[in-house]
Amino acid sequence: MFLIRAALLPAALLGATPAFAQEGPPAGPPSGPPAGMRDDGSDRVTVGFGMGIAPDYEGSDDYELQPGGIFQGRVSGVEFQMRGLNLYTDFVPDKPGSKTRLVLGPVVQLRLDRSNGIEDPRVAQLGERKTAVEVGLTAGIGKRGVLIPPASLNFDVTFLHDMAGAHKSYIVTPALSLSSPVSQRSFARLGISADYVGKGYARTYFDVAPGNTLAPYATTGAGWKSLGGSLLYTHDLGGNPRKGLGLFGLANYKRLLGQFADSPIVRDAGSASQVFAVAGLSYSF
Length: 285
What we know:
The chain is mostly beta strands. The chain has a single domain (2-284), classed as Outer membrane phospholipase (ompla), Chain C, CATH 2.40.230. The chain contains four helices and 13 strands. The protein has a twelve-stranded antiparallel beta barrel with strand order 2-3-4-5-6-7-8-9-10-11-12-13. The relative contact order is 0.20.
């Protein structure tokens, strides 16, 4: 079932993997200039708007049509990305011409998962969850010239912890991506990532208390929650990736694992397979 809803659908246009405001944490730090642009260390900003689909909540099989946007760039040597309700930063300056790239910076995220408008009545009966304010750090390393000269391989790990008392727990997300220009105006990135979550996260979003329509269920504790892959494609419309209009498309598939897939919230009322997609128009200056 598809619903139109006024919520942000964050698209990680230039990042390793996507993240959506209603589900898990984003993965991947800011990832350098657009395809075809030689990184000279100068300031740059990209904004974008698109439409996409995402599950109603993590584990749901009800999908929503959502507008979304991006805002990313570099100002005074600090890289940043706004992915919907997620802010990534990188405070390590890149050396022009270097084949190695280091990333380190704070991350802030709001998690709206099951905070309102739950479509499935069985899951709605479990009650809404508080908005989580997750704060943490991302660190990574990238290597240019992998496999083919223009390609780059990036690995990063993000740690987030809830500071608002919503799930009182943490999320650790390792991610790996391979990116490369595919033509003078086009760029593609293939990424994989996984989420490891703490006991509080597992209980908050996947446990079912007795006395509800769904069967009682208790997670056993911390564990690997999901594994996913993403494909990003961008195309420059103006001939100069540093300025002007561009098109983007992003698709992501995520599979919930183990005790999380076995929760009645997923097994009986939803799906362990989660699909996300977004496409739109961007502008760089």
